[in-house]
Amino acid sequence: MEPLFHVLRGGGDMSTSTIDTETLENSVQTGVNQLLRGGWGEALKTILFALLLLVICLVIKAILLKLLDRGLNRFSQVEKSLHTFIRSMANILLWFITLMVVADSLGINASSLLALVSILGLAVSLSVKDSLSNLAGGLTILGTKPFKVGDYVEIGETGGTVQEIGLVYTKLTTIDNRRILMPNSLVVDAQVTNYTTEPLRRVDLTVSASYDAPVEKVKQTIQGVLKDHDKILLDPPPFARLSGYGDSAMEYTIRVWCENGDYWTVYHDLLEEIKTAFDREHISIPYPHLEVKLHQS
């Protein structure tokens, strides 16, 4: 019998290897001969027994899958995608066992089927290796849980809120409402920064003040703004100190802690309120000036 199909085409020993189905054909032929050897009556009994065995296997498979679903549902930390994957793999495995049991009852050599399925699996895995890489990445994400749905993350240079963690892609929504689908293989290899996982977050700001403004006055003005903000935590205490000397201004570093969800509110409030306080206390913020002189000839 001619080979059923080529696994791969091209040069080299591996690329020209084929699936030899002669053993499987002989096994099936042997099974048919054994089935008909005792006459149609015995053949009918064997077929009915195989059908009964199939029904029993299907019932057992349904029971096992139901028990698996109950077991997975008890673990709320198991992501839906991982739940679906585990159930699908279990379903495929049980179907394969069913096929082997029924084939064996009909006198077909199960080892031949096993060899054929193994070679088919190798051929498929080689043709979809990129998808398998994403699948492996998805399982890694679901297992290690570097983030969950609803977290704001930065993956490489891409930031957004996690909408879905699939087995192949992770879906993000950016702050300007763009949907991004990132292959899980890239997610696993990239640096992931999760801004949501911790309950508290620190706001860091740097402001400038004129060299003419006394340091203590600037610090007291900034501290007054920090103490009056109801979303800034007092423990750890707010920090405001002179941190550098610029070309035209002194730089002050501000560090305050707040609830994670209040980060951007505190950030923008401080920018606005510190400027208002500086104006009230006559503290100037130097900025570059450009002088243009015109000379008449």
From TrEMBL:
Residues covered by the Mechanosensitive ion channel transmembrane helices 2/3 domain: 91-126
Entry membrane topology: Multi-pass membrane protein
InterPro entries for the chain: LSM_dom_sf, MS_channel_1st, MS_channel_C, MscS_archaea/bacteria_type, MscS_beta-dom_sf, MscS_channel_2nd, MscS_channel_C_sf, MscS_channel_TM-2
Chain ranges of the Mechanosensitive ion channel MscS C-terminal domain: 203-285
Keywords annotated in UniProt: Cell membrane, Membrane, Transmembrane, Transmembrane helix
Family: Belongs to the MscS (TC 1.A.23) family.
Protein name: Mechanosensitive ion channel family protein
Organism: Evtepia gabavorous
